[in-house]
Design goal:
Layout: E1 2-3, H1 10-18, E2 27-31, H2 38-46, E3 52-56, H3 65-73, E4 80-82, E5 89-90, H4 94-102, E6 107-115, H5 139-144, E7 155-158, H6 159-162, H7 176-186, E8 191-202, H8 208-214, H9 220-233, H10 237-256, H11 260-272, H12 279-298
Parallel strand pairs: 1-2, 2-3, 6-8
Antiparallel strand pairs: 4-7, 5-8, 6-7
Helix pairs in contact: 7-9, 10-11
């Protein structure tokens, strides 16, 4: 669990870990150079509990959660890995249900449920209104096309099943989990799904992903890198189409921001990766390029692009 400036929320997270009905666990926490009272608060919470190990990220390592996770992995003793975030909450039966389910499988995935503000434990008793989580027939393709959502903290992995694909790439601002799990899932893995919300993740806080969706330039290179990994693994039409749609989404965001440099990069990526694999897609992308040229001259009318994105 990486941690950075979470003094105001870390107690709730630690309490949820301490409350686990499965008790044979260790928790490795790596501080990423916090400047508030995080470390002081954390030490008060865990210093008498031998199940916790708290480290400072070594100065020679890249700052960021990925480097902290990679460093933490070097300290593990267990046969299973559960990544976690320092502002999230575990259901009391989170580890128990996953350990019961994983058996001889490579990983077990649960639902996640969002919350904001102060966490209310009554949420543990509520039924999730999210759509049913089912194991897809083709796990890799379903994951990379967005039909099988699996954020960094969703799976519990058998250590031996994940380690060959580590370390997490530390040069990516976003989608580092997507890049890692794409590589891991490409070779057939035995996956178990628990259709129950066992992790509650906090929304509203600043994050790399939020930065990307409010400023398209932030993380765009990381997005291209992560999706390039996916395309090296698979050139299926379903994979290409999903990446094309997402890239055009960021292209449209760039237009709204009048960020022509980012818009050009999106179109360049589409061309370089040959995402328009059919005559109809090539025709639609030519239309988009044509109207983009007009838009750059007159500087308005980006909402007119919306019908062009129906692929």
């Amino acid at each position: 669990m990486p941690i950075y400036n979470r003094a105001d929320v870390i107690e709730a997270t630690i309490n949820s870990i301490n409350a686990q009905t499965y008790t044979n666990w260790e928790c490795i926490i790596v501080d990423d150079g916090s400047t508030d009272a995080t470390v002081k608060t954390l030490n008060k919470l865990v210093n008498s509990n031998a199940k916790y190990q708290v480290f400072n990220r070594p100065q020679h390592l890249t700052k960021g959660p990925s480097a902290c996770r990679n460093y933490g992995v070097t300290k593990i003793k267990g046969d299973y890995i559960q990544f976690f975030d320092s502002d999230d909450i575990m259901h009391p039966n989170h580890l128990l249900l996953k350990m019961e389910a994983i058996k001889n499988n490579d990983l077990v995935v649960c639902k996640l449920k969002s919350f904001s503000g102060t966490f209310n434990a009554d949420a543990f008793l509520e039924e999730s209104t999210a759509s049913k989580l089912e194991k897809p027939k083709h796990v890799f393709e379903a994951f990379v096309t967005g039909n099988f959502p699996m954020m960094m903290v969703a799976p519990l992995w058998k250590t031996s099943s994940l380690k060959p694909y580590l370390p997490i790439r530390e040069d990516l601002h976003i989608l580092e989990d997507h890049e890692l799990y794409a590589r891991a899932l490409f070779k057939t893995k035995s996956v178990v799904v628990i259709d129950k919300a066992l992790i509650y993740y906090r929304v509203g806080a600043q994050s790399s992903t939020n930065n990307f969706y409010t400023n398209v330039s932030y993380g765009l290179a990381s997005y291209f890198e992560a999706k390039s990994t996916v395309l090296r693994l698979s050139q299926s039409h379903a994979v290409k189409l999903s990446i094309l749609k997402m890239t055009l989404g960021f292209f449209r965001q760039a237009l709204a921001e009048r960020n022509f440099k980012a818009a050009n990069k999106c179109l360049g990526f589409i061309k370089e990766k040959q995402l328009c694999y059919s005559f109809m897609l090539k025709l639609k992308c030519k239309r988009i390029r044509f109207f983009y040229g007009i838009f750059k001259i007159i500087g308005k009318g980006d909402t007119k692009f919306k019908p062009l994105f129906k692929l």
